[in-house]
Amino acid sequence: MEVLYGLHPVSEALKAGRRRFDHVLVARERHDDRLDRVIAQCRDAGIRVREESREQLTLAANTPGHQGVVALVRPQEFLTIEDLFEPDPATNKSSAGKSAARLVLAIDGVEDPQNLGALLRVADGAGVDGVLLTERRSAPLSPAAVKASAGAAEHLRIARVVNLVRSLEELKKHKLWIVGLDAGGQDSEGLAAGIQGAGVAGRGLTAGPTPRGPAAGPTPRGSAAGPTPYDQFDYTGDLVIVLGSEGAGLHDLVRRTCDHLLHIPMAGGVSSLNVSAAGAVVLYEAARQRRAAANSKSGTANALTTRPTASKPKKQKGLGS
Predict the structure, then answer these.
(1) In order of start, what are the domains of the chain with their CATH numbers?
(2) Which residue of 54, 78, 244, 275 sits 20 to 30 Å from the alpha carbon of 141, by its own alpha carbon?
């Protein structure tokens, strides 16, 4: 059994319906509407609720930050790369069957559970279709990470992979472009050659400018190209956005696998943002562009299908009328 603690994580896990609950402990000292709503959710789902002292909940959660509710649940089942393209049992939808372009978040070596949880919260809010986590050099999806995500982790489709580089290459075969956020802002020696071989040439494209738009992929990078400012990039295609660790950023092989690199210009004294803040900036720029593209398509379709009604010309009065 695993532990979930906190009002939001337990409530969102109940809403998502992906976890199997054994029972839920609530603090007998706490009486308020927020806890009452969680208790009502448990009863509606047929889950046992037991009152215990706050000290007992602290022992069960291994932290005093449980907010008066602790759930014992079955471990979360992680997906594979292939699963991300299959229908979601919770919604009966798949990213492959959606008319909108696909957006996947890959996390390369983020080891702090608070940052991981914050990134998952952002990913859910930005509407990503799936998340890739690595088995090594990565924070586990622990109760602390789930709590930091405010329960958003319970709604996401998360795949855990052994080798991120191989997984990114597999996603390229599904015609997704790999876009890395480069904290350093400069290319590694030989990076462009690696991108030319693995990313551009591998899909039969030549380096050079590509028209922006939903049907056009990201501009393949030439030998002299550097990371692109994040707000000058077209996110409306099928993409994987890769975020690196808090200190080192993207690992070198991961950077070389990327088709394109982005950076966030900094105007102050520090050189970069925290990874969860940087992820929020880029993912919400992607969400904004995709929403605008969808609205534009919808407006165009409405304009084509709606014919203006011809108005009857008014009879003009003139001399002699």
Answers:
(1) 2-73 (3.30.1330.30), 82-295 (3.40.1280.10)
(2) 54
In eight-state DSSP terms, residue 310 is: P
Quick one: pLDDT at residue 86? 80
* Confidence band for 6, pLDDT divided at 50, 70 and 90: very high
Q: What is the pLDDT of residues 97-156, one digit of tens each?
A: 455 789 999 999 899 999 999 999 999 999 999 999 998 888 999 999 999 999 999 999
Maximum distance among all Cα pairs of the chain, rounded to whole angstroms: 99
Residue 122 CB partners (closer than 8 Å, separation 6+): 276, 279, 280, 283, 284
Helices (H) and strands (E) in the chain, counts: 9, 11
Distance, in Å, from the CA atom of 187 to the CA atom of 261, rounded to the nearest integer, reads: 9
Please answer whether residues 237 and 249 qualify as being in contact, where contact means their C-beta atoms are separated by less than 8 angstroms. Answer: no
Strand, coil or helix: 267: coil
What number is the average pLDDT over the span 291-320?
63
How far is Cα of residue 93 from the mean position of the Cα atoms in its chain?
17
CB neighbours of 128 closer than 8 A, spacing ≥ 6? 103, 104, 105, 156, 283
Return the residue matching tokens 């079955």.
Answer: 74
Report the pLDDT value the prediction gives residue 149, as an integer from 0 to 100.
94
